[in-house]
Amino acid sequence: MLKKIPSGGTESEKKEAIHRIVEEMIYSDLPSVKLQEIDDLFKRLPLVAKKLEYKDIHTSEFIHRREVSEASNESLTCVKLGCLSFNVYDKIDSIKSRIKVINKVTQWVCDYLQKLPDSRVTFISMGAGALLMEQLIHQQITKSGVSDKKIAWRCIDIDYEEDPSRSPEASQTLKDVRKQFIEGKNVRFFTTATTYLNKKLNGQQLRTTDRENSAIVILEFNPPTPTHGNSQETLGNTGGYIVSGAPCEIAKANSVFLLIGAEDQHSDLEKFVGDLDSSISWMSSSMQFIKVSINVSGEPEVYLSEFYKKNCEALGLKFKNIVLSNLNQQKAIGSPIIRAEKALNELKEFILRAGWSAQVFTYSEYNDSVDQLTRHFYSGQQDSIDRSPGALFKLQHKQITITDSADFAALSSSQGAV
């Protein structure tokens, strides 16, 4: 009977031959037999994760350009594929570590879709930049046998915003990057995580649609901090944290800052805010500020910089209470971020009357965005619908961190390894 299966035929021809063999083996007086399981054998071939190797990105398709920054004396390698690219800063990054994380993401997706073959995977890439990492991940996953239809991309980067101050060449390059990446993919681009989380399609939030029957995989490969060498190692162990992101319009912001200085520092604060963009990062311990962030529940939370905790905690608490009293007023109206800006402007007026200088600006903060995304998709307190499994992949200082959601951990332990 096996000889009846055409060895060189298509999958449909082979499947039809197996159907006929099974029908010949079944007595006509038996109940009808569903042959769906045979169909499934053809649809659900084992997924074997294809590994990317170092030599694979040293072909004629790729361009490797080495540069040295005179300002920081740091060398970097730019790897390009058409318009797509990523930069490798030698002190904190390497091509090999990027290849390693690409392979780990590919393996995770194959494991997940082997366990739940009817599901999908939605990637949310923070600081996506010029999208070469995302392209290589997509290629490796599809080479492993996963259909393009199983994968969705949500690429977030503040530089996707049209900026009149940007050169025409830079703007065109970003357009070409997005155009090249789109081909054959389900992809949407966003300037901030807040914009993505608030996006609606056909009256329904995109984040809800993405979460239904889909694993949510968050990628953090290109944080803006290293681009100017402002790592914890180069800036020293000051006890603070690095603030990265960019000023943006209030509708896209996830935090509002109030910088505070001495009487004669007004122009300095104004210049500091004016110089900020997505390539600039700064140490929180070097500034006096009050920050209001919007948490996963959509409510404002107030933070004090390290300066007040170390030098004048009582004054910091007084400032914090003034902000909280404005935020919690019953007559307060507007979205949480608008209320946050208004509260900090109220405090700014108080500070100016006291003879100091102050500056308020709305900001899309990178770390807050990653935290906002992970808490939204992986916290059991947000919304009542069930979570799909997911994971956060981080590549920082040549180290790869993989944080599986509780749902994925439960899935893995209950179904075993594939």
Can you walk through the features of this model?
This protein is an alpha+beta fold. It contains 14 helices and 17 strands. The protein has helices spanning 11-25, 36-43, 95-115, 132-143, 168-182, 193-198, 206-211, 232-235, 266-275, 306-310, 313-327, 336-353, 366-378, 406-415; strands at residues 62-69, 74-81, 84-89, 120-126, 151-156, 186-190, 200-201, 204-205, 214-220, 242-247, 255-261, 281-283, 289-294, 300-304, 357-365, 390-396, 399-404. It has a six-stranded mixed sheet, sandwiched between helices. Strands 12-10-15-11-13-14 form a six-stranded antiparallel sheet. A three-stranded antiparallel sheet has the order 1-2-3. Strand 4, helix 4 (132-143) and strand 5 form a beta-alpha-beta unit. The longest helix is centred in the first third of the chain and has 21 residues, at 95-115. The protein is globular. 33% of the residues are buried. The model is unreliable at 225-238, 381-386 and 411-418 (pLDDT under 50).
